[in-house]
Amino acid sequence: MRTKLHLIVLCLAMVAMLAACGSEEKKADEKADVQTGEVAPAGKLVLGVAGAHSGDLASYGLPSVNAARLVAAKLNAAGGVNGMQVEVVAQDDQCKPELATNVATKMVSDKVSIVLGHICSGATKAALPIYLESRIVVMSPSATNPPLTQSGEYPNFFRTIAPDDAQAALEVSFAKSLGLKKLAVIHDKGDYGMGFANFCKQFIEADDEMEVVLYEGVTPGAVDYSAVIQKIRSSGADGVIFGGYHPEASKIVSGMRKRDLAIPFLSDDGVKDDTFIRVAGEFAEGVYATGPMDFSTNAIFQEAVAAHKAEFGSDPGPFFPEAYSAALALLTAVQNAGSTDYDKVIEALRTQYVDTPVGSIKFDAKGDAEGVGFAVYQVQDGKYVEIK
Amino acid sequence: MDYFLELFFGGLTRGSIYALIALGYTMVYGIIELINFAHGEIYMIGAFTGLIVAGVLTTLGFPEASILVIALICAVIWSASYGYTVEKIGYKPLRGAQRLSPLISAIGMSIFLQNYVMLAQTPDFLPFPSLTPQFDFMRPYSAIMNSSELVIVVATIAVCVGLTLFIKYTKLGKAMRATAQNRKMAMLVGVNVDMVISATFVIGSSLAAVGGVLIASHIGQINYFIGFIAGIKAFTAAVLGGIGSIPGAMLGALVLGLTEAFATGYVSSDYEDVFAFCLLVLILIFRPAGIMGKEKAQKV
């Protein structure tokens, strides 16, 4: 009996410790108290928030619930949307496609007007057909899989984050603006670098005026890249696009410069890192790299972060700015449309600009936010400068 | 033809880099039949020492030529003391043990040194200044080779010639050959085997340090992990040439470097490692002891 008592006390102590340890994440959890099965009362505008609110990927999903609550509170304080008070209803899909379909079905039966979500691309893809059938507009802050918008299958889907291939598209169009015709595309054989290089290759091949003269993977950490550099030279390339990270990029670019190969070197946000400039030194000068747009100076972004700190007592998590922007864009579109009518809301999203933390945005015909995503930077005098 | 030449010189540089590191592997194996897996880390420590010394001397305003010489000397002393200590702590107590124990000990040493440098210095990449004399070749030769590569190739040749003469004509060299042939017998005729083994580690580590400074200066960046990848390749080169044989290590390194360069140039760099290791397998099928290795290896 005594031992049992001890065990119980011990268990309680451990639980207490865990609760003490799970500081900020926990707090956010409690705030984003996920209600399930709440039926929306009439006369209210219900904003459904779907995503991973528990499990491994909860840290990606919970910030969007907080963002939605903050936006709703802000609009409600100003009299609501079209005179209706906004209510946020959250549903958890744990980023699992099979749960996402259940969540979507639940949202539809709860008469949710618009949906912010889902978080993961796979779950989003599974849920979209159900929303489409019920003509509900969906906007994701984080699903970056390109076909979600580009396939054209889901006219009800929008997103406030740039798709995976947006960076490559920008890279290639920038290379074109430099007047480059023959490009050597090099990558580091890794998921990220090779994926980026692959998209670049596709975009270059789709362009009649440009061609890929060399497409190769280099081994990260190798002692010497001179053979690859000779190959770039003999391929007659007038520019190099590199997909990967800064250690290889600095080896390749310094090797090129040491061998009198002065063609432009373009890379991705794995290279848009000050370490690259430190390591490559003088050879970094003039290198182009794409990187996420910087919205830290955006007033609405700063206001949203301050609101989050005041409300939840912590810094916002990943995809918070995108989620805040999505909630704002959705609710503003409802306001502009004057109702939650599917066609009118879509029309409003595509035609009217909204000021959000990620900038002033509207959406293109496919559902991607225009002007969100990446910018081109160039190393000038030892630091990255954005090229307008 | 030009393209072939460019690739050939690229491969030559790469082979020289491998050779500088492979010599240490092969010498130690020749003497005590142990693969010193910590050798790559000794090379890495040499590079770090060179970086720190060069940094200090540059701020003190020393002339460039003296910086290279002093950095090399400091790196050699520091790496040699590491090599000596690693042998004393990690391998000597296990000399009578079964074959696998020192091998595991060597892997442990390698991991320990890597993490030690990572914690003591930084896990980030650090820029390494060009310490070697800079001069430009005239076009079109500038496209084929640059000064730091030439320095590496010349240094490798000098080191190999020096080492061969040392083994052949000095007393210590003779003692090394004797120890390699038969340790017990050498002891009986009065060779101080402990001293010979320590000397082998010191020499091998010194070569790795020279390699570390020159190669880092050529590549322009270092971090705590460079020893691992370079070590694996250099070890492959040593096995290819016949582990335990000094000319074998050089030949193996050259063959490996050239294979990688031509595989990259004429096929694709995606497959450079595939070609390198296919070559290793092929050669070992036909010559199990490596190119220069003898069945009962005439070590060192």
Structural class of chain A: alpha/beta
**What's the overall average pLDDT of chain A, rounded?**
88
Write the element-wise H/E pattern of chain B from the N-terminal end onward: HHHHEHHHHHEHHH
Number of domains of chain A: 2
CATH topology of chain B: ABC transporter involved in vitamin B12 uptake, BtuC
CATH architecture of chain B: Orthogonal Bundle
**For the residues shown, what is the average pLDDT of chain B?**
91
Helix content of chain A: 40-55%
Gap from first CA to last CA of chain B: 38 Å
Structural class from helices and strands of chain B? mainly alpha
Subcellular location (chain B): Cell membrane
Transmembrane segments (chain B): 15-35, 42-60, 66-84, 104-123, 143-167, 188-216, 274-293
Membrane topology (chain B): Multi-pass membrane protein
GO molecular function (chain B): L-isoleucine transmembrane transporter activity; L-leucine transmembrane transporter activity; L-phenylalanine transmembrane transporter activity; L-valine transmembrane transporter activity
Give short descriptive properties of this protein.
heterodimer; A: 388 residues; alpha/beta; Rossmann fold; seven-stranded mixed beta sheet; elongated; B: 300 residues; mainly alpha; ABC transporter involved in vitamin B12 uptake, BtuC; two-stranded antiparallel sheet; 12 helices
How would you characterize the overall build of this protein?
The complex is a heterodimer of chains A (388) and B (300). Chain A is α/β, with parallel strands linked by helices and 388 residues long. Chain A folds into 2 domains: 196 residues, Response regulator (Rossmann fold, 3-Layer(aba) Sandwich); 104 residues, 3-Layer(aba) Sandwich (Rossmann fold), CATH 3.40.50. Chain A is 46% helix and 18% strand. In chain A, the strands form 3 sheets. Chain A has a 7-stranded mixed β-sheet, with helices on one face. Chain A has a 5-stranded parallel β-sheet with strand order 2-1-3-4-5, sandwiched between helices. In chain A, helix 7 crosses helix 8 and helix 10 packs parallel to helix 11. Chain A starts with a helix and ends with a strand. Chain B is mostly helical and 300 residues long. Chain B has a single domain, classed as ABC transporter involved in vitamin B12 uptake, BtuC (Orthogonal Bundle), CATH 1.10.3470. In chain B, 75% of the residues lie in helices and 1% in strands. Chain B contains 12 helices and 2 strands. In chain B, strands 1-2 form a two-stranded antiparallel ribbon. The mean pLDDT of chain B is 91. At the A-B interface, helix 9, helix 10 and helix 11 of A face helix 1, strand 1, helix 9, helix 10 and helix 11 of B.
